[in-house]
Amino acid sequence: MYEERRFSWATPPLTAWSRRGIHRRPPYAAGRRFVIVHLDGLSRATLEYALENGYMPRLASALERGEQVLARAHAGAPASTPAFQAALFYGKTGDIPGYIWHDKVRGKNVRMDSPVDCARFEASLQGPRPALLAGGSTYCSIISGDASAPCYAMSKLARGFPWLPFGCDDEMNGWDHLASIVAHTAGLTTSAGMMAATAITGAWNSAVWALQKGRLKHEPRFLLNRMLLGELAVQLTSYFTLLDIARGVPAIYSVYAGYDENAHRRGPYSYDALSELTIADERLAQIRCAIRARPELQYELYVLADHGQEPTRPIEEVLSGPNLADWILSANRSGKVEVEHAGRRASERLRRERLSALPFCHDLCAGAIRDGGGEDGKPPVVVADAGDVAHVYFTDTKRSLSLDELLARWPAQARATLECPGSGIVAVRGGRAGFAFLRGRRFDLAEPGSLEGVLPYDGERLRGYLSEMVAKPSAGDLVVFGAGVEGGDVAFAYEFGSHGGVGVGDVETFVIHPWFVDFDGPAVKGPLDLHRFFTERYLPSHGDES
Question: In CATH, which superfamily holds the domain spanning 2-310+505-540?
Answer without folding.
Answer: Alkaline Phosphatase, subunit A (3.40.720.10)
